């Protein structure tokens, strides 16, 4: 644990040193380390996480295409091809690229191919679920399936069920469902996403990262509401916010295996505990974060979003000082 006052850095691999090594090779245009890493990845939670991070790094190159051309029968290469296609489609949509619709269709085709080639894998279904947020008018039948509860709107519930059938409580699948619900919300209230997040967190097993889902929705609600400066405010010290942070600490942080904690989840929990003035508990989470900070959600607390690291450092210093453990 990094308890010194060194400035952190953003590293999508976090504490996963094997993933970090594969990313370095991938960025140099080489895919052999990526193949070896995925061959050694046996658990779905890690497979989902690693393929997501690798795809984000590979989306700007043809390295996965080269791998698939060299090994066309490779199932991992086929899944990664779908992952990269989805990442490109989502980026094109955010940027308003003229080929956004074309890339969307290509990504859907690649994801369906991956689902056929890897029938037990949840990731192709997570990919299809990711694309649902692009269908703002719900033109596709698979994006307007009746919800399992009357309080929730029609959506890609069948795609979520397919992912959940293969890997129950898959973290990314439920985050992608929340992102779909964000697109249906016109204001900062996000009532449907909030209700869904609490429903999932309430049903998730002990130690599941889905216990943090309400913290993500709260941060998004805060962002949509315009945010504040780095000062603490009532949005985070309210009783329900404090309760959410404390519950996530107990049901996830204190009940999970350290190696399975993602940097994003750790940063969201530290942020929520700091905001709730639970400084000693926040200090424990900051110690687990070590040097691997993530800009979100700290950027939401900065006036212009560009001082995320400074907000992180202020929060870490304040939390450690309050826990009588100075840097």
From TrEMBL:
This is DUF4034 domain-containing protein. It comes from Streptomyces adustus.
